[in-house]
Amino acid sequence: MEADIKQLVQTIHDAPERIVLVAAGAGTEALSNLLGVAGATRTLLEALVPYSQAAFDEFLGQPPAKYVTERTARLLAGRAFTRARWLDAATNPVIGLACTATIVTDRPKRGEHRAYLATWQPARLVEYGIHLNKGYRDRAGEENLVSRVILNALAAAMDLEPRLAYTLTDKDKITVTTHNFGKAAQQIHDGALDYFGVTADGRIRSKHVNPQAILSGSYNPLHDGHLELLQVSAKLLGHPVAFEISAQNVDKPPITPDIVIDRIAQFAGRWPIYVTNAPTYLEKARLFANTVFVIGFDTAERVLHPRYYQNSTTQLHAALDEIRDLGCSFLVAGRQDGDGIFRDLSELNIPAAYANLFQPIPAEAFRKDISSSELRATGQRGSR
Fold this sequence. Notes:
Distance between the termini: 36 Å
Structural class: alpha/beta
CATH class of the largest domain: Alpha Beta
CATH architecture of the largest domain: 3-Layer(aba) Sandwich
Number of helices: 12
Number of domains: 2
Radius of gyration: 24 Å
CATH topology of the largest domain: Rossmann fold
C-alpha cells in the first residue's frame, strides 16, 4: 500500500465517525485500503459490493432508472446512511458512502468510463462525478483513481487532512456538488424559508413545489405504522404521498435545526420529506394548494375543535372554507384509543357543510396501533 494512502487511512481510523460503504463497479480498492490498515473496526460498520443486478436492486429497494448516474449514487449513499444509523447512530456519528461506476472491463464499452459517488451525513450530502479519459488508463489505473477520490471524499466528510494526490488529464473531469440540509434547517428556523423538501435522493427543493398529498407528523421516530399509512393512502388516492414535518407546533415548542436534520435523516435514500413552518392545516394549505392531507383520528379532532381557532366556531368555519377554496381536503385514518376502542371518521363532529372535506380510510385497509411515545419510552428504534 502506498505510504500516502496508509497515512490517510490511519487518520480516518482515528476519527470518531463510523461508515457503511457500498461499492458497485469500482471502489473495492478503497475498501481494501480501509481493511489493510489496523483499526478498520473503528471505522467500518459494514461494506457491501452489490455486483449483480439483483443484489443492487435489493439494497436500493427498487431497480433504478439507470445504474450509473448521480441520482443512483445519492440513493445508494442514502440507503447506506440509514443502514449506518440503524447499526450505530446512538453511539457515534455515521456516514453513508457509496460509489456506482463503469470502468475498464474485459469487453469494450460504448459509453464513457465514469463513476459517481456520494457521502451522506445528517447535515449534508456531497456528490462527486468522475468522468475518465477513456482508453488512457487500464482497469487498475481507473480503479486506483476512483478509490483515491473515494478516500478523499470520506476524509472531507470527516473534515480531515491530508488528502491524496492524483493526476488528471485534460480529458478527465471531477465535479463536486453539496446539498446542505443543515443550512436549509437553519433558514427554516430563522424564518428565511417557509418550507423546503428533500427528495429521496437528497436534492433540496424550496420553490415551485406542490406535493399531491402529504402525511404530517413529528416522526420521533419514523415507524412501520407511518410507512403502512403512506402506502395505503397512496394506493387509495392513486398518486404519491410525501411526508411532512412542521418546525413550528401549535402545542409544543419549535423544533431546533439540529433536531430537524436528525428527523429528516430517517428518510434518506427512501422517501421525500418536507419541512415547513406551518403548524396548522390552514397554513399548510396556503403553502400547498390542491393537496390531500393524510391525518389520523386524533389530528382530525383537533382540526375540527374551536380551541385551535381562538375558541371561535366562526373562525373554525372560516378556516375550513379557506382550506376548501384552496382545493385541499383530508383523508382520515382511524385509531385505537386508550380504552382499546377503534375510533374512525364516523365519530367526528363534522359540520354538515364540510362533510365532503373529510374522507375515511377504511379500517380494513389500514389499522396499525403503534405509538411513537411508547417506542421512545421502551427505547425501541423506528423503521429500518
